[in-house]
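2024-03-11 09:14:02 DEBUG pipeline.ingest accepted 1 chain
2024-03-11 09:14:02 DEBUG pipeline.ingest length=301
2024-03-11 09:14:03 DEBUG pipeline.predict start
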Amino acid sequence: MPASVKAYKTYEEQVDLLASRGMGVADRDAAIKQLQHINYYRLSGYWYSFRRQGPSGRDDSFYAGTTFTDVVRLYSFDESLRTATFASLTPIELALRALLGHALGMLDECAHLKPELLGPRAAQGTSYATWMQRYKKSLADSKEDFVRHHHAKYGGTLPVWAAVEILDWGALTYLYGFSPRQTQDNIADKFGLTAPQLESWMKSLNVLRNICAHHGRLFNKVHAIKPKLPNVGHLPELDHARQEMNRTFGQLTLIQHMLRTLDVGRPELLPAVLRSYPDVQLLPLSHIGAPPDWATAPLWN
């Protein structure tokens, strides 16, 4: 075994290690049971912010008052937030499919298969060809009844308003980017955005959706993609979160805006989950990027 690989530790040894570093463990047996259900390294993302800040970064010891119970409470909150976020993204994704499929259908029933009818990006480089390979694979792998129907009656060629239903969010975003600028603008205008702004939102929310789908962490997360926003005052309901757009709260604000603009889904769901944030003295709700007055902001009350 390579010398660089960490030594195996039993559940009991893992609990003892945390306790030796200053984490309060009120019920050792309960902590061991939790570690049997939630991987030690998955939980470590939730106790990271409890670790003391040293001159060269976080060290292994915990701030006074850190408890295993609080770590698990944060994990449970994050689990609820992931579920609510995924549920809130679903009607937005479906609406974007419908909007794009309808708009491109006005150009041609098979606009997605005719790059000469799309925007200039479809003719640049190999992006469209790569997208087409991805589309064909999705078509071949699909088990949807409507796909079998089109195979039987139309030789398998899907019109664009049906084709959008077999695309994942990433492929849908690419198709939006390939679309003529007027088509992009018409859809973006429904959200009070420009086409580049909406495309950046779609990219950001695709990453957020994938985090939720793969049980990733939203708590205390700094997201790599920062969505583009209109100028201050253009959509004032977004301004309170403008500085937090690479944090989870900022990206949830995008969702709230889109739900309310489209009049879909349950815009009360995410605020309800945020209000359930556990009372953890060392780590307030600001660790997801929420400002102190978030609950009174227009999109959240």
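2024-03-11 09:14:41 DEBUG pipeline.report Residues 74-296 form one domain.
2024-03-11 09:14:41 DEBUG pipeline.predict end
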